[in-house]
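Protocol step 4 of 5: obtain the predicted structure for the target chain.
Materials: sequence only (see below). No template structures provided, no constraints applied. The aim of this step is simply to have a reference model before the mutagenesis design in step 5. Sequence pasted as it appears in the construct record:
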Amino acid sequence: MKLKYFIDSHKGVTGLFVLALMAYYQAWDNTTAWVYLALHGVYGILWVLKSRIFPDMAWEQPTSLAFGLLSWGSLSLYWVAPWMLVARNVQAPGWYLALCISLYSFGVFAHFASDMQKHTALTLWPGALISDGLFARSRNMNYFGELLIYAGFGLLAMHWLPLVILFVWVAIYWLPRMRKKDRVLLELEGFSDYRARSKLFIPFVY
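Step 4 output (structure tokens):
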């Protein structure tokens, strides 16, 4: 059983979960909820398509049922944002919606385009050091893209809790994976120079 099955299924049903929230709270006239549904629901579909067309090998690894279910449950923390949005009937102003949509859009580009670059490069040149294109300034541009995506989702709730959940995920899961990747890449020729001219996570910052 692959870890991707748990991740893909969770992301794939997110749109249905948001729709269920809207039905339960009768939030059909809430524009912010519809925007959230469009953004997070479509993101889940895009993730599943990405997983089928240019999969990330990290999620292709076999896993136990227990760890898979734990992963599924942990990902459900991201559903706090739509629940808070719909339950509290958040009505974000137009400029705020535009900000969140912009963050999401930049994030989708950075995340999916960098994953496609990585998939293509490693298919053509297995084991190669990827240090150009979207990875020129960030060694983990795909994660930076996800940060922008989930920041857009969290901000739509107009509450601090979804952002805390996001940064806990970054601290306990994303950053350790990035540092582990760096340790593996140390064995590749040219990595020391690449590390010196790039950032671990956020381009030009960190």
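Step 4 remarks: The CA atoms of residues 80 and 162 lie 6 Å apart. The mean pLDDT is 96.
Proceed to step 5.
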